[in-house]
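Duplicate of #3305? Posting structure anyway:
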């Protein structure tokens, strides 16, 4: 069995709304479940990029860029 660790996260309103909608649709039971699935997908993506080498020299999209459409550079 996996150990569980409590953490607090703050979500932008559009992400909190998305999480609520997914729970209301019955796809997930809790906020923790939605966040956990999202983190697993991110972890898989990071590992895949490391293996394929596509992460090398790639431009990293920042959180600000994704949410506000501009680079933090």
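Output from current build:
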């Amino acid at each position: 069995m996996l150990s569980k660790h409590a953490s607090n996260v703050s979500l932008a309103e559009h992400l909190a709304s998305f999480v609520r909608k997914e729970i209301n649709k019955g796809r997930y039971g809790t906020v923790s479940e939605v966040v956990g699935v999202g983190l697993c997908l991110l972890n898989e993506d990071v590992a895949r990029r490391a293996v394929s080498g596509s992460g090398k020299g790639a431009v990293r999209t920042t959180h600000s860029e994704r949410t506000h459409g501009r680079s933090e550079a």
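Confirmed duplicate; merging threads. The first helix runs from residue 13 to 24. The mean pLDDT is 82.
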